[in-house]
Amino acid sequence: MADKYNVEEAEALAKRALHLPITQATPIYEQLLSLYPTSARFWKQYVETQMAVNNDDATKQIFSRCLLTCLQVPLWQCYIRFIRKVYDKKGAEGQEETTKAFEFTLNYIGTDIASGPIWTEYITFLKSLPALNPHEDMQRKIALRKVYQRAILTPTHHVEQLWKEYENFENSVNRQLAKGLVNDYQPKFNSARAVYRERKKYIEDIDWNMLAVPPTGSSKEEVQWVAWKKFLTFEKGNPQRIDTALSTKRIIYVYEQCLMCLYHYPDVWYDYAEWHIKSGSTDAAIKVFQRALKAIPDSEMLKYAYAELEEARGAIQSAKNLYESILGVSTNSLAQIQFLRFLRRAEGVESARKYFLEARKSPSCTYHVYIAFATMAFCLDKDPKAAHNIFEEGLKRYMTEPVYILEYADFLTRLNDDRNIRALFERALSTLPTEESAEVWNRFVQFEQTYGDLASILKVEQRRKEALFGKGEEGSPALDSSLQDVVSRYSYMDLWPCTSNELDHLSRQELLVKNMNKKVEKTNQPHGSAIIGLVASSSKVVYPDTAQMVVHDPAKKSGIEFSSSAKPVAASASNIFQSNVTATATHVSANTFDEIPKTTPPALLAFLANLPHVDGPTPNVDVVLSICLQSDLPTGQTAKQSFTAKGNVPSQNDPSGPNRGGSQRLPRDRRATKRKGSDRQEDDDTASIQSQPLPTDVFRLRQMRKARGISTSSQTPTGSASYGSAYSGELSGSTG
């Protein structure tokens, strides 16, 4: 199979085996169960196939292989059915064997929430036993009472039904005795019923037919893992407050059921073993680890955990065998290091040294082994000379490994051997490739800042710049001293000689310097400058798909409709701004990007055309301001004159307009005079109005007017109407 644990293929094979003769179906079942040994459904189907052909020997053999590892009620019901079939006609001997089978079954799965039918069947079986004399009848009733009392204390789906049957049973035996027994067991039954209701909530989330496969990270597997974890946590809390022995048995049962579905999850096996250890049952934990390694033989995590347990309890040889088994599968540096540490703990220094001398000859040995053994000699054996020799020996092989150089430098730092540290850095930096030497240079600078004088610090910093950035031209920014160097020299741990804002500012400046050194392709923009070139777009910028853009529709968003009352009053204003406002209000729902330039004022189009492409979502503010200063945008004075010229026309939306009463209107002759006087000015201002973007803030305009010395108190009602109209989205003009 391409996929060893193909669930769909396994299900198809199981269905096909149902329609095949037993001789052809058996190899299929064996193949399925070798992959899914905890699938109670496949075991049940396999055993039922053997039972159908009355192959009792094969059936018994199959049950012996699966019953104790597949604790699921349907499979055990099949076992009871087989036992009753075999012993039904064997008289007293058969009855005794059947009773033993029931007790055996209930001892293992009697606490299952679905075990109610087995309890009921057992009670029915006991009632059917013949009683030849009063003594036998009394013995049968005593046996029934014991089974009932066990059943009503078990939180199952049938607990309430069993309680009613128990009450009837006791009343049928002795009403006077029944009252006392029922009263004694009523609180226990209530507790079992309450626990059943709680347990049912956790059971409902579990898929009992899930096949055990290695973790794939699917959402279904994660849901099942969480459901089992919650169920285990619930059972560990002993919700029924039963004695420790029964609670322990119940938790073991839930773990075994969990492993039927999460058989290949090492964390579940480890939790199971750890729970046994905390419970004081080390032998049981060892058995769990042994089963776990059989289920997941390649799990190094479980092997280390098992070896740790064996070492903790003094079984050194067993632990050593586990470490050697890890080395036999994968001879990697980690396994060698862990075995070194184990030998040092368990057998002493000489045993560890002997293995190190052997391990360093292995082709799979890396610098990690040298570092680990040198550290062990220094920290555990208190032998700095041996540790120094090991580092020197490794340096011959791993001079080009920056991590090894840094670890060696750390060791020498502990010895306060500054002379050898400088010699180590010089030797390493003379052989390390430039692209791999940055960390070593940084550590060298850090070392000089701690041990050296100012001259040596500045010298090493300059050498680092030349090594990492090249000597370059004289006066190159990369080689010049910067404030960043000062910050680096005079910071300590998490203490800085500047604020976080200043540090951020320095970082941005450093980025600008790097960009300044890049060759930027000149653009043919009319207002281009050197600053624009610094932030020109790189070829790596990904632009959005403008075909997917939609024109913003404020009417749809806010629910505002453009009614006839919102149309411009003056015909001249309508003509002037038809390409801007009317087109926007009429065609605002257009779906093409091409509609945007048609509704954009010419001045804004010119401004946007001069904007440079930028890296990232936000442009440089200084660049945008420089373009604004160089662009021929309408000034505030032009806008003031334009709106002043149009201020003689009242707006329908202004409170001081004509709708507020006749006292606010000008006489007809005065309006005519003003209209004639403003005709000439209107013609001059038309061009500037067309290039002026619509104002959007009344308060800001008033502040602008105050700043220019225009008193709001001198405004005529007509002027107020003009501003109110303009900022409400309407445009007033002279009447023609």
TrEMBL record:
Biased composition (Polar residues): 639-656
Matches recorded under PROSITE patterns: TPR
Signal peptide: none
Matching InterPro entries: HAT, Rna14-like, Suf, TPR-like_helical_dom_sf, TPR_rpt
Molecular function GO labels: mRNA binding
Keyword field contains Nucleotidyltransferase: no
TPR repeat residue numbers: 266-299
Highest taxon of the lineage: Eukaryota
Main location: nucleus
Subcellular localization, as worded in the UniProt entry: Nucleus
Biased composition (Low complexity): 719-736
Any single GO CC term annotated in Swiss-Prot or TrEMBL for this entry: nucleus
GO process terms (BP): mRNA 3'-end processing
Keyword line: Nucleus, Repeat, TPR repeat
Suppressor of forked domain span: 4-503
SUPFAM superfamilies hit by this protein: TPR-like (SSF48452)
Region (Disordered): 639-736
PANTHER family linked: CLEAVAGE STIMULATION FACTOR SUBUNIT 3, RNA CLEAVAGE STIMULATION FACTOR
Protein's name according to its UniProt entry: Suppressor of forked domain-containing protein
Originating species: Brassica oleracea
Source species taxonomy: Eukaryota, Viridiplantae, Streptophyta, Embryophyta, Tracheophyta
